[in-house]
From TrEMBL:
Species of the source: Mytilus coruscus
Coiled coil, from the record: 101-128
GO cellular component: nucleoplasm
Keywords, sorted A to Z: Acyltransferase, Coiled coil, Metal-binding, Transferase, Zinc, Zinc-finger
Protein name: TRIM28
InterPro entries noted in UniProt: TRIM45/56/19-like, Znf_B-box
Region (Disordered): 265-284
PROSITE patterns, alphabetized: ZF_BBOX (PS50119)
Enzyme class per UniProt: transferase
The B box-type domain, residue ranges: 4-50, 56-96
Length: 297
């Protein structure tokens, strides 16, 4: 690339313009640069070496072919001095450099404000996410504790049912045991009478034997054979239980959807599909209504 021609200081118009002011778009020598940055209005101006920058030519008015140095605030367009007294007469104006400086400052502040606001929003969202995680843990703990409580209630109910079965079955067994004991007593009495018959068979036939046999006949008549009692029975009928029946024992949880804020203060909730848990635990209404009104629907 061809080297740019050396420039002369545009202030003293004698020394080489080795420095270029980006704000003023002018070449300065070292002495004029030092004086320039000592001025209150230009102390923050930025300089570059004239060998490192090749500034673009100033914009020129298409109508008058003059350098534009003003901004018509009414029309929001850059104009030259001839436009100020010509087609833009009576309009509000500002210097081009001032407008550029103000616009740069405005853009810088607006961007900083939005970056700061976004940073704060991100911080709040991260804090909210942590808080949401804590709430999730609380809900999980509550569900777990409720499940433990329900399990304990089920275990207690099982123990009570088993104890009731054993108590009632023991009562019936005791009844049957007593009946069996009574039957054994009758059987023993019969066995004793049988022995007496055996002994009487060895006795001489006389009047005394007759009396003994008559007494034996009466005793045998008193022996009764009780019918077999109806034996106790036990059975268990299981009740059909579904997953939904178990879920009905628990409480329910509700998660509100994420809402995003849009331009114009419009809110939009992100689509949220109902969980299988919510769908299963919702009471069914199938078959609730037998008829439909043709007018009301």
């Amino acid at each position: 690339m061809a080297q740019a021609a050396s420039k002369t200081c545009e202030i003293c118009v004698s020394a080489p313009g080795s420095q270029y002011c980006l704000e003023c778009e002018q070449y300065f020598c070292e002495n004029c640069k030092t004086f320039h940055i000592r001025q209150k209005l230009s102390k923050n101006h930025q300089f570059q070496s004239s060998s490192d920058v090749i500034p673009e030519g100033k914009s020129r008015c298409k109508e008058h072919n003059e350098d534009v140095s003003f901004v018509c605030n009414t029309c929001n367009v850059a104009v030259c001095s001839s436009c100020v007294t010509g087609s833009h007469t009576g309009h509000a104006f500002s210097k081009l450099k001032d407008s550029i400086s103000q616009l740069k400052e405005k853009n810088k502040k607006d961007l900083q404000r939005k970056v700061h606001e976004t940073t704060q929003n991100m911080k709040k969202m991260e804090e909210s996410l942590k808080a949401f995680d804590v709430k999730v843990e609380v809900v999980v703990k509550a569900i777990t504790e409720e499940g433990t409580k329900i399990k304990a209630m089920v275990d207690k109910c099982i123990a009570q049912m088993i104890a009731s079965v054993k108590d009632q079955s023991k009562t019936e067994k005791d009844k049957l045991t007593k009946i069996i004991a009574d039957r054994k007593m009758d059987l023993k009495a019969g066995s004793n009478l049988d022995k007496k018959i055996y002994e009487l068979d060895k006795t001489r036939n006389d009047g005394k034997l007759l009396q003994s046999l008559q007494k034996l006949t009466e005793d045998i008549a008193k022996l009764t054979i009780e019918p077999i009692p109806e034996f106790p029975d036990i059975q268990y009928t299981a009740k059909p239980v579904t997953d939904n029946d178990i879920k009905q024992l628990f409480g329910i949880f509700i998660i509100s959807g994420v809402r995003t804020q849009h331009i114009g203060n419009r809110e939009k909730e992100l689509p949220k599909t109902k969980s299988d848990y919510e769908q299963d635990t919702k009471p069914k209404e199938e078959g609730k209504y037998l008829y439909r009104c043709n007018r009301c629907g």
